Fold each of these.
Amino acid sequence: MLGDCFRACRVESWFGWLSNFGLGSLLFRLPPLQREVIVFFAFSLATASIFVLNQYFDREADRENKVKSTLPVASGRITPRRALILSLTLVILCFILVFVVDVHLLPLFLVYLGLCTAYSAPPLRLKTVPIVDFAVSGIGAGLLPFLIGLGVPQQLNISVSLIVLTAMPLVLFHSGGHIIQAVGDYEADRKTGVHSFVVRYGRKKGVLVAGFMFFTAALLPFTYSAFGLLSPGHLLLFFILLPLSIPVTVHYTNLLKNPSTTSISDLHKKATKYGAIALAILWGYILLIKTTGF
Protein backbone atom coordinates (compact mmCIF):
# COMPACT_ATOMS: atom_id res chain seq x y z
CA MET A 1 0.00 0.00 0.00
CA LEU A 2 2.79 2.43 0.87
CA GLY A 3 4.50 1.59 -2.41
CA ASP A 4 1.34 2.39 -4.35
CA CYS A 5 0.94 5.66 -2.45
CA PHE A 6 4.48 6.65 -3.38
CA ARG A 7 3.92 5.69 -7.02
CA ALA A 8 0.72 7.76 -7.00
CA CYS A 9 2.83 10.81 -6.17
CA ARG A 10 4.66 10.31 -9.50
CA VAL A 11 7.91 11.83 -8.27
CA GLU A 12 9.63 11.03 -11.56
CA SER A 13 7.22 13.34 -13.42
CA TRP A 14 7.97 16.55 -11.51
CA PHE A 15 11.75 16.68 -11.72
CA GLY A 16 11.47 19.83 -13.83
CA TRP A 17 9.20 21.44 -11.24
CA LEU A 18 11.81 20.83 -8.55
CA SER A 19 14.50 22.27 -10.82
CA ASN A 20 12.51 25.48 -11.25
CA PHE A 21 12.04 25.70 -7.49
CA GLY A 22 15.76 25.22 -6.98
CA LEU A 23 16.61 27.80 -9.63
CA GLY A 24 14.46 30.39 -7.87
CA SER A 25 15.98 29.64 -4.47
CA LEU A 26 19.63 29.82 -5.60
CA LEU A 27 19.79 32.15 -8.59
CA PHE A 28 19.99 35.50 -6.81
CA ARG A 29 21.14 34.64 -3.29
CA LEU A 30 22.10 31.47 -1.42
CA PRO A 31 19.52 30.69 1.30
CA PRO A 32 20.16 29.23 4.77
CA LEU A 33 20.41 25.44 4.41
CA GLN A 34 17.78 24.64 7.06
CA ARG A 35 15.23 26.97 5.47
CA GLU A 36 16.00 25.54 2.00
CA VAL A 37 15.44 21.95 3.16
CA ILE A 38 12.14 22.66 4.95
CA VAL A 39 10.62 24.66 2.07
CA PHE A 40 11.89 22.02 -0.38
CA PHE A 41 9.96 19.32 1.47
CA ALA A 42 6.89 21.55 1.73
CA PHE A 43 6.99 22.17 -2.01
CA SER A 44 7.50 18.45 -2.69
CA LEU A 45 4.48 17.55 -0.55
CA ALA A 46 2.32 20.15 -2.32
CA THR A 47 3.41 18.89 -5.73
CA ALA A 48 2.81 15.26 -4.77
CA SER A 49 -0.71 16.15 -3.60
CA ILE A 50 -1.40 17.82 -6.96
CA PHE A 51 -0.38 14.72 -8.90
CA VAL A 52 -2.47 12.43 -6.69
CA LEU A 53 -5.51 14.70 -7.05
CA ASN A 54 -4.99 14.83 -10.81
CA GLN A 55 -5.18 11.03 -10.94
CA TYR A 56 -8.41 11.12 -8.94
CA PHE A 57 -10.16 13.41 -11.43
CA ASP A 58 -8.55 11.82 -14.50
CA ARG A 59 -9.01 8.18 -13.53
CA GLU A 60 -11.55 7.46 -16.29
CA ALA A 61 -9.41 9.04 -19.01
CA ASP A 62 -6.28 7.35 -17.64
CA ARG A 63 -7.94 3.94 -18.02
CA GLU A 64 -8.18 4.64 -21.76
CA ASN A 65 -4.49 5.59 -21.91
CA LYS A 66 -2.05 2.75 -22.61
CA VAL A 67 0.68 4.35 -20.48
CA LYS A 68 -1.39 5.85 -17.66
CA SER A 69 -3.75 2.90 -17.23
CA THR A 70 -1.18 1.32 -14.90
CA LEU A 71 -1.21 4.27 -12.49
CA PRO A 72 -2.38 3.30 -8.97
CA VAL A 73 -5.74 5.11 -9.09
CA ALA A 74 -6.63 4.23 -12.69
CA SER A 75 -5.73 0.57 -12.14
CA GLY A 76 -7.72 0.38 -8.92
CA ARG A 77 -4.81 -0.35 -6.61
CA ILE A 78 -5.76 2.85 -4.77
CA THR A 79 -9.46 3.63 -4.45
CA PRO A 80 -10.70 7.13 -5.31
CA ARG A 81 -11.56 7.73 -1.64
CA ARG A 82 -8.04 6.81 -0.51
CA ALA A 83 -6.56 9.02 -3.24
CA LEU A 84 -8.49 12.00 -1.86
CA ILE A 85 -7.38 11.22 1.68
CA LEU A 86 -3.76 10.88 0.53
CA SER A 87 -3.88 14.19 -1.36
CA LEU A 88 -5.44 16.00 1.63
CA THR A 89 -2.89 14.49 4.03
CA LEU A 90 -0.02 15.69 1.85
CA VAL A 91 -1.50 19.21 1.75
CA ILE A 92 -1.86 19.31 5.54
CA LEU A 93 1.74 18.21 6.02
CA CYS A 94 2.82 20.86 3.52
CA PHE A 95 0.98 23.59 5.43
CA ILE A 96 2.50 22.47 8.73
CA LEU A 97 6.00 22.89 7.28
CA VAL A 98 5.10 26.28 5.77
CA PHE A 99 3.82 27.53 9.14
CA VAL A 100 6.99 26.26 10.80
CA VAL A 101 9.42 27.97 8.44
CA ASP A 102 7.60 31.13 7.25
CA VAL A 103 3.86 31.79 7.19
CA HIS A 104 4.45 34.56 4.62
CA LEU A 105 5.03 31.83 2.02
CA LEU A 106 1.47 30.53 2.52
CA PRO A 107 -0.19 32.76 -0.16
CA LEU A 108 2.19 31.45 -2.83
CA PHE A 109 1.48 27.85 -1.84
CA LEU A 110 -2.27 28.55 -1.86
CA VAL A 111 -2.10 30.01 -5.38
CA TYR A 112 0.04 27.07 -6.51
CA LEU A 113 -2.34 24.46 -5.09
CA GLY A 114 -5.43 26.39 -6.19
CA LEU A 115 -4.37 26.84 -9.81
CA CYS A 116 -3.22 23.24 -10.21
CA THR A 117 -6.45 21.99 -8.62
CA ALA A 118 -8.53 24.15 -10.98
CA TYR A 119 -6.59 22.59 -13.84
CA SER A 120 -8.00 19.12 -13.08
CA ALA A 121 -11.09 19.63 -10.92
CA PRO A 122 -14.60 20.62 -11.98
CA PRO A 123 -16.28 22.97 -12.45
CA LEU A 124 -13.38 24.88 -14.01
CA ARG A 125 -11.32 21.87 -15.21
CA LEU A 126 -9.00 24.16 -17.13
CA LYS A 127 -7.29 21.26 -18.90
CA THR A 128 -10.40 21.03 -21.13
CA VAL A 129 -10.06 24.65 -22.32
CA PRO A 130 -7.78 24.93 -25.40
CA ILE A 131 -4.82 27.31 -25.03
CA VAL A 132 -5.72 27.86 -21.37
CA ASP A 133 -4.65 24.25 -20.76
CA PHE A 134 -1.00 24.69 -21.75
CA ALA A 135 -0.85 28.27 -20.41
CA VAL A 136 -1.94 27.12 -16.95
CA SER A 137 0.53 24.24 -17.12
CA GLY A 138 3.36 26.63 -17.97
CA ILE A 139 2.47 28.92 -15.07
CA GLY A 140 1.85 26.08 -12.62
CA ALA A 141 5.00 24.11 -13.44
CA GLY A 142 7.29 26.97 -14.49
CA LEU A 143 6.46 30.31 -12.90
CA LEU A 144 4.97 29.34 -9.52
CA PRO A 145 7.71 26.87 -8.48
CA PHE A 146 10.24 29.56 -9.40
CA LEU A 147 8.37 32.14 -7.28
CA ILE A 148 8.16 29.78 -4.31
CA GLY A 149 11.89 29.22 -4.70
CA LEU A 150 12.46 32.97 -4.62
CA GLY A 151 10.74 33.03 -1.26
CA VAL A 152 13.27 30.65 0.31
CA PRO A 153 16.07 33.24 0.75
CA GLN A 154 13.36 35.90 1.20
CA GLN A 155 14.08 37.72 -2.04
CA LEU A 156 10.56 38.42 -3.30
CA ASN A 157 11.42 42.14 -3.38
CA ILE A 158 13.15 41.61 -6.74
CA SER A 159 11.64 43.71 -9.54
CA VAL A 160 8.67 42.18 -11.32
CA SER A 161 10.30 42.72 -14.71
CA LEU A 162 13.38 40.72 -13.70
CA ILE A 163 11.21 37.88 -12.37
CA VAL A 164 9.16 37.80 -15.60
CA LEU A 165 12.23 37.82 -17.84
CA THR A 166 13.87 35.03 -15.86
CA ALA A 167 10.76 32.87 -15.63
CA MET A 168 9.61 33.30 -19.24
CA PRO A 169 11.84 30.52 -20.67
CA LEU A 170 10.64 28.19 -17.89
CA VAL A 171 7.00 28.92 -18.69
CA LEU A 172 7.57 28.34 -22.42
CA PHE A 173 9.43 25.06 -21.88
CA HIS A 174 6.71 23.69 -19.62
CA SER A 175 3.90 24.89 -21.89
CA GLY A 176 5.57 23.15 -24.81
CA GLY A 177 6.17 20.04 -22.73
CA HIS A 178 2.50 19.98 -21.77
CA ILE A 179 1.48 20.06 -25.43
CA ILE A 180 3.85 17.18 -26.24
CA GLN A 181 2.34 15.19 -23.35
CA ALA A 182 -1.14 15.99 -24.66
CA VAL A 183 -0.14 14.59 -28.06
CA GLY A 184 0.55 11.28 -26.31
CA ASP A 185 -2.81 11.51 -24.52
CA TYR A 186 -4.70 12.43 -27.70
CA GLU A 187 -6.69 9.22 -28.16
CA ALA A 188 -7.69 8.89 -24.50
CA ASP A 189 -8.61 12.59 -24.24
CA ARG A 190 -10.70 12.44 -27.42
CA LYS A 191 -12.59 9.35 -26.22
CA THR A 192 -13.37 10.83 -22.82
CA GLY A 193 -14.31 14.32 -24.02
CA VAL A 194 -11.24 16.20 -22.78
CA HIS A 195 -11.08 18.99 -25.36
CA SER A 196 -7.46 19.98 -24.96
CA PHE A 197 -5.57 22.18 -27.39
CA VAL A 198 -4.25 19.09 -29.17
CA VAL A 199 -7.69 17.47 -29.42
CA ARG A 200 -9.18 20.70 -30.79
CA TYR A 201 -6.44 21.55 -33.32
CA GLY A 202 -4.76 18.21 -34.02
CA ARG A 203 -1.51 16.49 -33.09
CA LYS A 204 0.53 17.92 -35.95
CA LYS A 205 -0.31 21.52 -35.04
CA GLY A 206 0.33 20.71 -31.39
CA VAL A 207 3.84 19.47 -32.14
CA LEU A 208 4.53 22.57 -34.25
CA VAL A 209 3.36 24.96 -31.53
CA ALA A 210 5.41 23.11 -28.91
CA GLY A 211 8.49 23.29 -31.13
CA PHE A 212 7.99 27.04 -31.56
CA MET A 213 7.83 27.44 -27.79
CA PHE A 214 11.01 25.42 -27.25
CA PHE A 215 12.84 27.42 -29.92
CA THR A 216 11.66 30.75 -28.47
CA ALA A 217 12.70 29.72 -24.95
CA ALA A 218 16.17 28.76 -26.20
CA LEU A 219 16.47 32.04 -28.10
CA LEU A 220 15.47 34.30 -25.21
CA PRO A 221 18.88 34.40 -23.44
CA PHE A 222 20.50 35.65 -26.65
CA THR A 223 17.74 38.25 -27.02
CA TYR A 224 18.31 39.39 -23.44
CA SER A 225 22.04 39.68 -24.13
CA ALA A 226 21.42 41.73 -27.29
CA PHE A 227 19.40 44.23 -25.23
CA GLY A 228 22.01 44.37 -22.46
CA LEU A 229 19.89 42.44 -19.96
CA LEU A 230 22.31 39.51 -19.70
CA SER A 231 26.09 39.53 -19.62
CA PRO A 232 27.49 38.10 -22.90
CA GLY A 233 29.91 36.01 -20.84
CA HIS A 234 27.04 33.88 -19.57
CA LEU A 235 26.13 32.87 -23.13
CA LEU A 236 29.08 30.48 -23.05
CA LEU A 237 26.90 28.18 -20.94
CA PHE A 238 24.30 27.95 -23.71
CA PHE A 239 26.92 27.02 -26.30
CA ILE A 240 28.13 24.28 -23.93
CA LEU A 241 24.58 22.96 -23.65
CA LEU A 242 23.88 23.19 -27.39
CA PRO A 243 25.28 19.72 -28.33
CA LEU A 244 22.93 18.12 -25.79
CA SER A 245 19.94 19.49 -27.70
CA ILE A 246 20.89 17.74 -30.96
CA PRO A 247 19.61 14.20 -30.10
CA VAL A 248 16.41 15.69 -28.68
CA THR A 249 15.92 17.79 -31.82
CA VAL A 250 16.33 14.69 -34.01
CA HIS A 251 13.60 12.87 -32.07
CA TYR A 252 11.41 15.97 -32.19
CA THR A 253 11.73 15.89 -35.99
CA ASN A 254 10.65 12.24 -35.97
CA LEU A 255 7.67 13.18 -33.81
CA LEU A 256 6.72 15.94 -36.24
CA LYS A 257 6.70 13.37 -39.06
CA ASN A 258 4.84 10.77 -37.03
CA PRO A 259 3.04 12.15 -33.93
CA SER A 260 2.42 8.74 -32.38
CA THR A 261 2.64 7.34 -28.85
CA THR A 262 5.88 5.55 -29.76
CA SER A 263 7.46 8.77 -31.02
CA ILE A 264 6.36 10.54 -27.82
CA SER A 265 7.96 7.81 -25.71
CA ASP A 266 11.24 8.02 -27.65
CA LEU A 267 11.34 11.81 -27.34
CA HIS A 268 10.56 11.64 -23.61
CA LYS A 269 13.42 9.19 -23.00
CA LYS A 270 15.93 11.36 -24.86
CA ALA A 271 14.70 14.57 -23.25
CA THR A 272 14.94 12.99 -19.79
CA LYS A 273 18.45 11.65 -20.40
CA TYR A 274 20.01 14.74 -21.93
CA GLY A 275 17.90 17.11 -19.85
CA ALA A 276 19.36 15.63 -16.66
CA ILE A 277 22.88 16.20 -18.00
CA ALA A 278 22.02 19.77 -19.00
CA LEU A 279 20.55 20.50 -15.57
CA ALA A 280 23.65 19.11 -13.84
CA ILE A 281 25.83 21.44 -15.93
CA LEU A 282 23.48 24.37 -15.24
CA TRP A 283 23.51 23.80 -11.48
CA GLY A 284 27.26 23.39 -11.47
CA TYR A 285 27.61 26.70 -13.30
CA ILE A 286 25.24 28.51 -10.90
CA LEU A 287 27.02 27.18 -7.83
CA LEU A 288 30.38 28.15 -9.33
CA ILE A 289 29.15 31.70 -9.88
CA LYS A 290 27.66 31.92 -6.38
CA THR A 291 30.65 30.52 -4.51
CA THR A 292 33.44 32.19 -6.46
CA GLY A 293 31.75 35.41 -7.60
CA PHE A 294 33.05 34.68 -11.10
Amino acid sequence: MYGRGLRALSFSTVAALCVAFSLVFFYAPLEAEQGFLQKIFYIHVPLAIITLCGFVFGAIMAIAHLRTGDQRWDMRSYVAIHMSLIFAVGVLITGSIWAKGSWGHWWVWDEPTLVSFLIVFLLYATYQPLRFSIEDPERQARYASVFAITAGAFVPLNFMAVRLSSAYLHPRVLGSTSNLPAKMGFTFVICLIAVALLYATLYKYEMTAKHTRAQLRALRRRVLSDETTAPRRSFQGSTAPGLRPSAPGGVLKMSAVRRPD
Protein backbone atom coordinates (compact mmCIF):
# COMPACT_ATOMS: atom_id res chain seq x y z
CA MET A 1 0.00 0.00 0.00
CA TYR A 2 2.95 2.35 0.55
CA GLY A 3 4.04 2.02 -3.06
CA ARG A 4 0.76 3.34 -4.42
CA GLY A 5 1.31 6.55 -6.38
CA LEU A 6 5.07 6.35 -5.93
CA ARG A 7 5.85 6.60 -9.65
CA ALA A 8 3.76 9.73 -10.12
CA LEU A 9 5.29 11.28 -7.02
CA SER A 10 8.79 10.50 -8.29
CA PHE A 11 8.14 12.12 -11.67
CA SER A 12 6.61 15.15 -9.96
CA THR A 13 9.68 15.48 -7.75
CA VAL A 14 12.09 15.30 -10.68
CA ALA A 15 10.07 17.89 -12.60
CA ALA A 16 9.88 20.22 -9.58
CA LEU A 17 13.63 19.95 -8.98
CA CYS A 18 14.39 20.71 -12.63
CA VAL A 19 12.13 23.77 -12.55
CA ALA A 20 13.64 24.91 -9.23
CA PHE A 21 17.24 24.65 -10.44
CA SER A 22 16.33 26.38 -13.70
CA LEU A 23 14.86 29.29 -11.75
CA VAL A 24 17.88 29.42 -9.45
CA PHE A 25 20.43 29.66 -12.25
CA PHE A 26 18.51 31.49 -14.99
CA TYR A 27 15.69 33.49 -13.36
CA ALA A 28 16.66 34.64 -9.88
CA PRO A 29 18.86 37.76 -9.97
CA LEU A 30 22.33 37.89 -8.45
CA GLU A 31 22.59 39.29 -4.96
CA ALA A 32 24.39 42.62 -4.80
CA GLU A 33 26.98 41.73 -2.14
CA GLN A 34 27.52 37.95 -2.41
CA GLY A 35 26.88 37.48 -6.09
CA PHE A 36 26.64 33.90 -7.37
CA LEU A 37 27.48 32.47 -3.93
CA GLN A 38 24.11 33.59 -2.61
CA LYS A 39 22.35 31.03 -4.82
CA ILE A 40 23.25 28.29 -2.32
CA PHE A 41 20.59 29.95 -0.18
CA TYR A 42 17.90 28.34 -2.38
CA ILE A 43 19.15 24.90 -1.34
CA HIS A 44 20.34 25.51 2.21
CA VAL A 45 17.27 27.23 3.63
CA PRO A 46 14.61 24.87 2.16
CA LEU A 47 16.65 21.90 3.39
CA ALA A 48 16.72 23.40 6.89
CA ILE A 49 12.98 24.11 6.94
CA ILE A 50 12.01 20.65 5.69
CA THR A 51 14.45 19.00 8.12
CA LEU A 52 12.89 20.72 11.14
CA CYS A 53 9.38 19.99 9.87
CA GLY A 54 10.40 16.33 9.45
CA PHE A 55 11.50 16.15 13.08
CA VAL A 56 8.16 17.57 14.20
CA PHE A 57 6.35 15.16 11.87
CA GLY A 58 8.22 12.27 13.52
CA ALA A 59 7.06 13.50 16.93
CA ILE A 60 3.43 13.57 15.75
CA MET A 61 3.74 9.99 14.49
CA ALA A 62 5.25 9.00 17.84
CA ILE A 63 2.25 10.48 19.67
CA ALA A 64 -0.05 8.38 17.48
CA HIS A 65 2.01 5.28 18.35
CA LEU A 66 1.75 5.86 22.10
CA ARG A 67 -1.99 6.45 21.82
CA THR A 68 -2.80 3.42 19.66
CA GLY A 69 0.09 1.00 20.25
CA ASP A 70 0.18 0.34 16.50
CA GLN A 71 3.72 -0.50 15.36
CA ARG A 72 3.09 1.11 11.99
CA TRP A 73 3.06 4.56 13.58
CA ASP A 74 6.40 3.81 15.22
CA MET A 75 7.87 2.82 11.86
CA ARG A 76 6.57 6.03 10.28
CA SER A 77 8.12 8.07 13.07
CA TYR A 78 11.45 6.26 12.67
CA VAL A 79 11.56 6.83 8.90
CA ALA A 80 10.64 10.52 9.26
CA ILE A 81 13.46 11.11 11.76
CA HIS A 82 15.92 9.03 9.76
CA MET A 83 15.17 11.00 6.60
CA SER A 84 15.42 14.32 8.45
CA LEU A 85 18.85 13.37 9.75
CA ILE A 86 20.04 12.82 6.17
CA PHE A 87 18.66 16.22 5.16
CA ALA A 88 20.28 17.77 8.24
CA VAL A 89 23.70 16.64 7.02
CA GLY A 90 22.99 18.48 3.77
CA VAL A 91 22.03 21.58 5.76
CA LEU A 92 25.29 21.56 7.70
CA ILE A 93 27.40 21.02 4.55
CA THR A 94 25.72 23.76 2.51
CA GLY A 95 25.74 26.08 5.53
CA SER A 96 29.48 25.59 6.01
CA ILE A 97 30.13 26.34 2.32
CA TRP A 98 28.02 29.47 2.52
CA ALA A 99 29.74 30.57 5.74
CA LYS A 100 33.18 30.08 4.21
CA GLY A 101 32.30 32.19 1.19
CA SER A 102 30.52 34.92 3.19
CA TRP A 103 32.46 35.18 6.44
CA GLY A 104 35.75 33.52 5.56
CA HIS A 105 35.25 30.73 8.13
CA TRP A 106 33.71 27.29 7.81
CA TRP A 107 31.88 27.80 11.11
CA VAL A 108 30.95 30.79 13.29
CA TRP A 109 30.25 29.82 16.88
CA ASP A 110 28.62 33.11 17.87
CA GLU A 111 25.88 32.74 15.23
CA PRO A 112 22.72 31.45 16.98
CA THR A 113 21.15 29.84 13.90
CA LEU A 114 24.14 27.65 13.10
CA VAL A 115 24.78 26.60 16.69
CA SER A 116 21.11 25.89 17.44
CA PHE A 117 20.74 23.72 14.35
CA LEU A 118 23.90 21.82 15.29
CA ILE A 119 22.44 21.19 18.77
CA VAL A 120 19.23 19.82 17.23
CA PHE A 121 21.26 17.61 14.87
CA LEU A 122 23.41 16.20 17.70
CA LEU A 123 20.29 15.61 19.79
CA TYR A 124 18.66 13.53 17.06
CA ALA A 125 21.96 11.79 16.27
CA THR A 126 21.48 9.90 19.55
CA TYR A 127 18.04 8.63 18.46
CA GLN A 128 19.19 5.53 16.59
CA PRO A 129 21.85 4.41 19.16
CA LEU A 130 19.24 4.76 21.89
CA ARG A 131 16.63 2.90 19.87
CA PHE A 132 18.76 -0.07 18.84
CA SER A 133 20.37 -0.45 22.26
CA ILE A 134 17.02 -1.90 23.45
CA GLU A 135 16.38 -5.49 22.36
CA ASP A 136 12.72 -5.87 23.27
CA PRO A 137 10.71 -4.55 20.27
CA GLU A 138 7.84 -3.13 22.34
CA ARG A 139 10.10 -1.32 24.79
CA GLN A 140 12.25 -0.13 21.90
CA ALA A 141 9.29 1.42 20.12
CA ARG A 142 7.90 2.95 23.32
CA TYR A 143 11.18 4.54 24.43
CA ALA A 144 11.90 5.78 20.89
CA SER A 145 8.47 7.42 20.76
CA VAL A 146 9.04 9.20 24.07
CA PHE A 147 12.40 10.45 22.79
CA ALA A 148 10.88 11.62 19.49
CA ILE A 149 8.13 13.55 21.28
CA THR A 150 10.54 15.21 23.71
CA ALA A 151 13.02 16.17 20.99
CA GLY A 152 10.21 17.26 18.68
CA ALA A 153 8.91 19.66 21.34
CA PHE A 154 12.42 21.12 21.62
CA VAL A 155 12.54 22.03 17.90
CA PRO A 156 9.92 24.86 17.91
CA LEU A 157 11.16 26.13 21.28
CA ASN A 158 14.67 26.32 19.90
CA PHE A 159 13.39 28.09 16.79
CA MET A 160 11.58 30.73 18.84
CA ALA A 161 14.65 31.29 21.02
CA VAL A 162 16.75 31.91 17.93
CA ARG A 163 14.18 34.31 16.47
CA LEU A 164 14.28 36.34 19.69
CA SER A 165 18.05 36.46 19.71
CA SER A 166 19.62 39.91 19.41
CA ALA A 167 23.00 38.81 18.01
CA TYR A 168 21.77 37.66 14.63
CA LEU A 169 23.97 37.41 11.53
CA HIS A 170 21.97 34.90 9.49
CA PRO A 171 19.61 36.41 6.88
CA ARG A 172 15.91 36.14 7.64
CA VAL A 173 13.76 35.08 4.72
CA LEU A 174 10.47 34.29 6.46
CA GLY A 175 8.20 36.61 8.38
CA SER A 176 7.68 40.37 8.44
CA THR A 177 11.42 41.14 8.33
CA SER A 178 11.96 39.39 5.00
CA ASN A 179 13.10 41.75 2.22
CA LEU A 180 13.48 39.32 -0.67
CA PRO A 181 12.71 40.74 -4.11
CA ALA A 182 9.77 39.22 -5.96
CA LYS A 183 11.88 37.05 -8.26
CA MET A 184 13.97 35.73 -5.37
CA GLY A 185 10.88 35.08 -3.28
CA PHE A 186 9.17 33.16 -6.08
CA THR A 187 12.29 31.07 -6.71
CA PHE A 188 12.59 30.34 -3.01
CA VAL A 189 8.99 29.10 -2.78
CA ILE A 190 9.47 26.79 -5.78
CA CYS A 191 12.68 25.41 -4.25
CA LEU A 192 10.89 24.84 -0.95
CA ILE A 193 8.14 22.89 -2.73
CA ALA A 194 10.73 20.84 -4.66
CA VAL A 195 12.64 19.93 -1.49
CA ALA A 196 9.38 19.02 0.27
CA LEU A 197 8.48 16.72 -2.64
CA LEU A 198 11.96 15.19 -2.48
CA TYR A 199 11.50 14.47 1.23
CA ALA A 200 8.06 12.94 0.64
CA THR A 201 9.37 10.77 -2.20
CA LEU A 202 12.34 9.44 -0.24
CA TYR A 203 10.11 8.89 2.78
CA LYS A 204 7.65 6.89 0.68
CA TYR A 205 10.45 4.88 -0.92
CA GLU A 206 11.85 3.87 2.47
CA MET A 207 8.44 3.02 3.88
CA THR A 208 7.71 0.86 0.82
CA ALA A 209 11.06 -0.92 1.16
CA LYS A 210 10.54 -1.62 4.86
CA HIS A 211 6.99 -2.83 4.31
CA THR A 212 8.12 -5.16 1.51
CA ARG A 213 10.99 -6.46 3.62
CA ALA A 214 8.59 -7.22 6.48
CA GLN A 215 6.28 -9.11 4.13
CA LEU A 216 9.21 -11.17 2.81
CA ARG A 217 10.30 -12.06 6.35
CA ALA A 218 6.77 -13.16 7.23
CA LEU A 219 6.57 -15.25 4.05
CA ARG A 220 9.96 -16.83 4.74
CA ARG A 221 8.91 -17.77 8.28
CA ARG A 222 5.72 -19.34 6.93
CA VAL A 223 7.62 -21.38 4.35
CA LEU A 224 10.14 -22.59 6.92
CA SER A 225 7.40 -23.57 9.35
CA ASP A 226 5.59 -25.52 6.60
CA GLU A 227 8.80 -27.33 5.65
CA THR A 228 9.46 -28.42 9.24
CA THR A 229 5.92 -29.67 9.87
CA ALA A 230 5.29 -31.37 6.50
CA PRO A 231 7.60 -34.44 7.01
CA ARG A 232 6.16 -35.05 10.45
CA ARG A 233 2.61 -34.95 9.15
CA SER A 234 3.40 -37.24 6.21
CA PHE A 235 5.04 -39.82 8.50
CA GLN A 236 2.23 -39.79 11.04
CA GLY A 237 -0.67 -39.68 8.61
CA SER A 238 0.23 -42.31 5.97
CA THR A 239 1.79 -45.78 5.64
CA ALA A 240 3.11 -47.66 2.67
CA PRO A 241 0.71 -49.94 0.75
CA GLY A 242 0.50 -53.38 2.27
CA LEU A 243 1.70 -52.26 5.70
CA ARG A 244 -0.37 -51.60 8.72
CA PRO A 245 0.82 -50.37 12.06
CA SER A 246 0.76 -52.83 14.89
CA ALA A 247 0.08 -52.18 18.49
CA PRO A 248 1.54 -49.19 20.11
CA GLY A 249 5.15 -50.32 19.74
CA GLY A 250 5.43 -48.78 16.34
CA VAL A 251 6.42 -52.07 14.59
CA LEU A 252 4.88 -52.46 11.17
CA LYS A 253 3.48 -55.86 10.14
CA MET A 254 2.84 -57.10 6.63
CA SER A 255 -0.83 -57.63 5.86
CA ALA A 256 -2.30 -59.54 2.94
CA VAL A 257 -3.36 -57.37 0.07
CA ARG A 258 -6.36 -58.80 -1.69
CA ARG A 259 -6.29 -58.28 -5.38
CA PRO A 260 -9.51 -57.53 -7.18
CA ASP A 261 -11.04 -60.54 -8.99
